[in-house]
Automatic annotation (TrEMBL):
Residues 20-174 form the Flavin reductase like domain. This is Flavin reductase. Signal peptide: none annotated. SUPFAM superfamilies: FMN-binding split barrel. InterPro entries: Flavin_Rdtase-like_dom, Split_barrel_FMN-bd.
Amino acid sequence: MFYTPEAGHGLPHNPFNAIVSPRPIGWISTRGSDGTENLAPYSFFNAVAYVPPQVMFASTSMKDDRDGTKDSVGNIRDTGVFCVNIVEYAMRDVMNETSGDYGREVDEFEKAGVERAPCETIPCSRVAGAPANLECKLTQIVQLPGAANFAVFGEVTGIHIRDNCLNEDGHFDVSTYQPLARLGYRDYTRVTELFSLKRPGE
């Protein structure tokens, strides 16, 4: 089949998310200017540069109390910082609990029973015990076409790695925690098998 997004796909559900998959999940923790904290997962997330290390995530919906966006973006606008917490398969249920449409006064760390720890380089909490945490300083927020589409870019200023995720060769070994990834619809997957490829000329 072929379709244009303008004309519609004619299917029971939009296939776009399923086509662009699997997608890593950025579990974004933020703190508002009033001190309230927020924790929410975003599957439009990735690393975008090595030097300096930079990441991005996109928010695509809004809340009535957040001026056309969601709590994460609203908090980052106010404070200029955020933390990306890497999601392991074992934390799939608590991650999902934090995806609810809660009021801005709700602290998802408390709501889902997620243990928090302080960041080192930014005034924000992180998920304690996560495989890794990326402390980030906002570089820019880009408004994309669409009513509530914002891409948030940040420079990584501090990195936490859980000790048991480093193997004896000094590699960050994703097989130790099985990263959770988003597919389409309500589907997820996890990384359980690895293989390597050499680039041409190596």
